[in-house]
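Final report, Chapter 2: Outcomes

The project's central promise was a pipeline that accepts a single protein chain and returns its three-dimensional structure in a standardized token representation, suitable for archiving and comparison. That pipeline is now operational. To close this chapter, we reproduce one record exactly as it appears in the project archive, with the input sequence first and the structure output second.
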Amino acid sequence: MNPPDEPPTGLIAGVRAAGREPEPERTGQRWGFGAFLLVEAVFVLTAVFITALARTSGTDIGGSVAFVLVGSILPTVLAATLAVVITRVRGNGPLVDLRLHWNWADVKVGLKLGFLGLVLTYVAALLWSRLVGDQNATSAIGELVDGTALPLGAAIGMFVYVCFLGPVCEELIYRGLLWGAIERQGWSRWAAFVLTTLIFAAGHLEPLRTSLLIVIALPIGIARLITRRLTASVVAHVINNFLPGLMLLLVSLGVVSA
């Protein structure tokens, strides 16, 4: 039998155990769905404001690139920061409320599911591009750098965001704050897994790619499901984004063709 803080040995055993083990107590947590809705509102309103500012500024293509990069990064960072602040003001802080406890066993689970997610993402993207076309399978940032040479600083910033900063922020929001709000209602972890996966995909505000994003999110959500902590899902998300982020970097620098 595994220690309480260790995920069950093996991914299959972990998924099976997810439905049997009791939910963790959330003593002292005074936030719920309202906190998540507030965070999402900040994300959407910030993105809308930056988009409107870019359209009315009359900037050239270089300025437009900067606006799109800022418009992709700033809303997510602000929303994740607000999520952390809410847990400090209305709860026990992010380590407890967002399940940010560090555990090497969780890292191993995240690595396994991250590499599995890479394979799943590659296969799903191939199938998706054949069904809807390459253009519709490309993310908003991917469309930005398609055929466009970015300055070195912008290209590196985009890479860091796609591979590291973005995954951390998104996990804090969806499989941290939203997951915690669902668990606080007494719903099962399976309900949290399904709802956060669907809302995560829709929250990217890319309707044509929502179905593809659901597939991509499955291994990341499973990492959170079986470990009950955020470390595994963060690691899985980073691994899943690394190769696409690296390809975007190489394309944006003109090293490889799109």
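Archive annotation: Residues 98-252 form one domain.
This record, like all others produced under the grant, will remain available to the consortium after the project formally closes.
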